[in-house]
Amino acid sequence: MADGSSAPGQDPVGPASAVRPFLVTAGRVAPGGAGRPMPVETQVVATVEGLDALGGLSFEQHDIVAACRRPQSIAELAARLRLHLNVVRVLAEDLRTEGQLTVHVPDSDDTHDASVLRRVIDGLRAIPDSRGVLRDSD
Fold first, then answer.
1. Are 100 and 50 in contact (CB under 8 A)?
2. Going by fewer Cβ within 10 Å, which terminus of the chain is more open, N or C?
């Protein structure tokens, strides 16, 4: 809409958050537990406990759990919420540890499928830069 408001049911479009990623994760760049970071194609979905706890979560955690009423990949969440990919990884792992998200890592054979990789690339391209501008696609 011309006045800057969004139509009902649409995600608002605007500049990316000015909050520095390390502030959102308390300086962590990797999940608290040992192990590798979640792959970008990892699917996460909110648990009943997570949905019940929405009122007590930080802004970013709230947005992640609320967006995961349906399964979302880590890459999709980063793009939709305009958060740094590693921020979403760290917070999603925290939420998983607290029982507020369940995580489903796709079979490694599926991740080599060209259509899956194309969707991941498209999701990453949907993440705006620091000025809120989307990257060009090829």
1. yes
2. C
